[in-house]
Amino acid sequence: MGQERQDARDELRAPVWLSSDTSRRLRAITALVDLIAEQVLAQLADHVEMNDDGTMVVVPFTPHRVEGA
Prior knowledge:
The protein is 48% helix and 9% strand. By secondary structure, the protein is mainly alpha-helical. A two-stranded antiparallel ribbon has the order 1-2. The longest helix is centred in the middle third of the chain and has 14 residues, at 20-33.
């Protein structure tokens, strides 16, 4: 039960406004993989890596359904 409370405190919900071009790309991706935008963005965030120089990169991945989500 304590871990669940800690996890809940660590969660982040953030409204995100995307440009029209980015929104169209995201909608196209979500349609292809049958996920909602929030699921794809969460998986994208999970794959971000920070380089030593502070730049961020996303390693290639395929969005997928997550059990219980």
